[in-house]
Amino acid sequence: MCSIVIILIIGILVSLQSLTQAENCSFFSEESLKFPKDFSFGVSTSAYQIEGAWNADNKGPSIWDVFTHNHQDKIKDESNGDIALDSYNNFDLDLKALKHLNVDFYRFSIAWTRIYPNGDISSRNQKGIDYYNNMIDKILANGIKPVITMYHWDLPYEIQKFGGFTNSLIVEQFLTYAEELFENFGDRVKTWITFNEPNQICKLGYGIGVFPPAINLPGVGDYLCYFNLLKAHGATYRLYQSKFFEKQGGKVGITLDTIFGFSKTNNNADVDRIMQYSLGLLAHPIYSKSGGFPKIMVEDIQKNSLQEGRRKSRLPIFDEFWRTTVQGSADFLGLNYYTSRFVRRAEKPCFESPSMDRDADIETSVEPEWLMGKSEWLYSVPEGLEGLLKYIRDEYNNVEVMITENGWSDDGELEDDNRVRYFKNHIQAVMNAVNEGCNVTSYSAWTLVDNFEWLKGYTEKFGLYSVDLTSEKKERIPKNSALFYKNVIETRTIPCDS
Ligand code: NOJ
């Protein structure tokens, strides 16, 4: 009798776990709704999007400087990051907002062209190093941990002249830059992210060619880029382990972005296909037991390449040295999650050949009831985040996941209720995943202040704080979402719906 009652109670508790926070608030004690004590919250930015001062203190040009200057028409409002939020000269304004939010950590990126203006060690720039040293000291003095992204899309223009990520020289060039960062900042910085969103770097930069360096080589340039970028990442991890880890004791990882795929017909093969093409091509080489690109991609691309009359696959293959260098080369998986899609295998080939899309051969769709942000690609699908975290748990041996970005775009209103709802639902999805045994240790919101949103200029706003760029003071004004997030951080709970 007693055991039947216990089983019944357990059953009720388990089904309550799957209710939303709003629904289960009244059932659980406050304690059980809290994030674990060591779970940390932060906020993310990137250098080009906020710093401005594009040529100050010897900084060299990056591919984004050159692209925005030469192709104004490609940026929606014909703007650029020359001045942006002027964070380079006004870091204290950002710091004030960070303190107001009470974040545990601040994830920001370093502009390679401030450290090495032409990308190479021969141009080493002490002023750039001093700038970030000072910033790191200030962050730490305020009780906030710095999390550094080494590369957030602003490749030194001079390195692009060598072919950028399509030339394997990038491995050595990145490694030298990374070593400079570890040497100068590693005594205080304990979390390192090598690359932010290789999918965008490679697919948009060297495949479709809509992002700088605007190389249009679909199905060829993008794969070369992935290959070299993974090698640069792996080599950097090995360098840290052999030369810095013992003294500095930090962690090194990479930030990947992906949608989660749902199938209307419960077709697991379609879901697996999209997941391998959007996450697996980076995660499998690093986090799987066997390493190398996912089998499905190796086979598809080999087959398609031969059909196109080539002698070998457009997808480069890791030799044994590189396969083992890259395999296991991360202490955590940084995850940028924004949105999801329904997916299904294309009925007839509907993408240009060759291209990654043609190789993947997947059509995507959205649900009419999914709320859309200002960005045309952004729909709010919190269940996608929960599904994705479980997928990573099962596929990659429950590797530690740090959510390095998650955010919502609008026109910039201070009463940003849709952003509040987006954050609330997504943070809830994270909590659900944690309760389901997913090894998620942190969450970072994108982004601190409205900033330069790449091809969309300043027309799509993702910030928790707003700023009047024409004002002299450039004060950071909290939106409702900042107040909401501050409350989550301070209470470690998600507020119940009233
Ligand atoms: C991810 C990128 O890392 C970031 O730079 C960008 O602003 C956001 N997505 C929103 O598009």
Textual characterization of the structure:
With 498 residues, the chain is an alpha/beta fold. It has one domain: Glycosidases (TIM Barrel). It is 43% helix and 13% strand. The chain contains 18 helices and 13 strands. The strands form three sheets. The chain has an eight-stranded parallel β-barrel with strand order 1-2-3-4-5-7-10-11, surrounded by five helices. Helix 17 links the parallel strand 10 and strand 11. Helix 9 runs parallel beside helix 11, helix 10 runs antiparallel to helix 11 and helix 16 packs parallel to helix 17. The longest helix has 28 residues. The chain is globular. The chain starts with a helix and ends in a 7-residue tail after the last helix.
> What is the beta-strand fraction?
5-15%
Q: Assign the CATH superfamily.
A: Glycosidases
What is the gyration radius calculated from CA atoms?
22 Å
Name of the level-1 CATH class: Alpha Beta
Bound small molecules, by name, code or SMILES, are: 1-deoxynojirimycin
Shape: globular
Q: Tell me about the biggest sheet?
A: 8 strands, parallel, barrel
Per CATH, the architecture is Alpha-Beta Barrel
Number of domains: 1
